[in-house]
Amino acid sequence: MKKLFISSLAMAVIVSCSSSNDDTSANSSNNNNNNTPYLLKKSTEISPDGSSYVVEYKYNGTKITESYDVTDKEKTVFTYDGDNIVKAEVYRDGVLKITREYAYSSGKLVSEKVTNKEKGQPLIYTENYQYLSDNHVQYNDFYTATYNPTTGAYSDIKFIQKDVYFNNGNMISCSSTNMGITHSITYIYDGNNHPMKNVTGFVKMEMFSNNDGEIGYSNLLSSNGTYTGTLNETHKSNGVHTLNAANYPTKSEMTYVSSSIGTNKRTYLYEYNK
Fold this sequence. Notes:
274 residues; 5% helix
């Protein structure tokens, strides 16, 4: 799925926070009758105007090797060290545009270095994750940078400090303050299986990159967020998931409501290896 799983730089309808946890109970899988792990092979995102975005996935066992955005012709290649994804390289029309390098300690993601070559000289920055407890993480989330079209160089790279609590690999709350605006959000999950749950190292790697709370070991049922301070707004989301016999979604219908933007609905379809 383009929005959920591939484009870490894309802006979601609802701005949020994210976190990760390598909880062994969260990684346990409900598989099919052949004891073969369910692996997502194809995802389709249907936007409000009816347009579709299709992403296809390739694996070596349960390790993801490649995802391909059929719509935008964007390929992401993944590299592992053991069971950890240590690199994700994004290609557009065969040209390397973005490289993400991940570092781990004691099985937890501790940093992500991004090299973005989409404009002029590369934009390079690192996000670092500090574990205050098993369920509490603080990290510097990339916010903005100033680009000079004359020199092709970036300057004044800024981050937002985010404070996240999570449980069983799923976010339960996140808060941050930036430019006089405090953002707080809470999340509720269904306890069933996320489409990418069985992909080795994927949820642990990707949860920090997404901005809508929809990456975890379970499926997002709802989120409720507020902006207070120099901006006062509310936003929420609601998910309805159609499950197969092993409690993996084959269809997710997400409704996003913002007090400033209005309502936006999207549908996601999932196809698995079995």
